[in-house]
Amino acid sequence: MPLLTTRAGLNSLAHIPTLEFSTLNDSTDEREIFASTLSVPVMALKAPIRKIPNETLGLIFDYARETNLLQEFPWGLGTDKKPPTEILSSSDILRKCPSISISSTCYRWRQVALARHSMWSRLKLELTSGEDSPMHRTPFTDMLELHLQRSGTSSLQIALNISGEKDQVLYAVTLIVKHSNQWRRFFYGGEVCSSTYYNDEVLEVPHLESIVAPCYDADARKNLVPHKKGTKALRNFYQLSGRGQDHLTLDHIDIYAKGPLDSIFDASPHVATLTLRQHTSTNISTSLQVQKTLNQLTSLNVRVRGDAPVGSTLLETVFLSVIFPSLRKLAITGLAGYSMAWPKCAFNTCLSRSSFSLTKLHLKNIPMKDSELITHFAAPVDSVPSGTLNR
């Protein structure tokens, strides 16, 4: 029987049990069984959700979940190291990959999902780089390729996590690199980032707005950074370490202060908000070769650590090496038992050069006496309307 979707068709279908009862025996049980078999599909066809327009239904599907999880199976590292996301059952897989579960529900939902390219463009990928990791097509890469194809020309939001440290070409990575011109947001959370994963290709990312790459291998950072022709849309920059970024022009920087920071400030002289995070590495210290002036910097956030190597005085380096005359917001946070003394001389030198006037001050876990606080911040915070002190 063909699928009836018109109102007249549904109304006529609702009376099928009555019309067909004449062909049945007089047995009451037979009639009840026949009616029950038809009641479910008839009620489904008359369900209220069928009255929702496809466009509205597509929007609902689009908000079903932020990302579609695609996890390598079988996991290439075995039981030595578990995947970042634990999957408990097959139904759990469907919950974490709404694009597949929605498009597999019924014909109409499938057509709506296929027409909604953005549903397929938000990917969370978990794969391995080890001795048993696949370097060719697998069901996992087939599923990834399916999502990339169905995303059409939509901007891609990719969260990539590679477990393991073997330096090898990964077929899944080469697939997403081929679509780098569609990247809008890219997160890399692997242990090691190597350009070998994608044959050392140059990434063209004309639409990239933000990149999250908290890896610390210098060569890898250079390959993750988009080249000059692909940086026009790049405005947010999160946790990418500070070397090899000479082609970037950014308004907002959030960076691990590891190694010389000159290239970042040279490439982004108009940065407006800056966050510097102290790194725990024992063999690299933060430094600036030449004094920098950041005229448009209005917000500075410095996060210092107590477990950083002795001599890595991030606060002192910043106060002595950077001039920010337009600074309005200053936040300093101590982490991991930070207990170093406040760099009084460096801060006073910074004040004498910059002459900034703060409107917001936030100090947390910074060891400083009340008398020192008043002495150090009396001048720059005369007009501070709001402040947070948690020492």
Key phrases:
alpha/beta; disordered N terminus; 3 domains; two-stranded parallel sheet; single chain; F-box domain-containing protein
What would your notes on this structure say?
- The strands form two sheets. The protein has a twelve-stranded parallel beta sheet, covered by helices on one side. The chain has a two-stranded parallel ribbon with strand order 9-11.
- 27% of the residues are buried.
- It has helices at 7-14, 16-20, 28-45, 54-62, 90-96, 98-103, 107-115, 139-150, 171-178, 218-224, 262-267, 314-321, 344-354, 370-377, and strands at residues 68-71, 122-128, 156-163, 183-188, 210-212, 236-238, 252-257, 273-278, 292-293, 299-305, 322-323, 329-335, 360-364, 386-390.
- The chain has 391 residues and is an alpha/beta fold.
- Residues 1-7, 12-21, 216-223, 240-248 and 382-387 have low confidence and may be disordered.
- This is F-box domain-containing protein.
- It comes from Collybiopsis confluens.
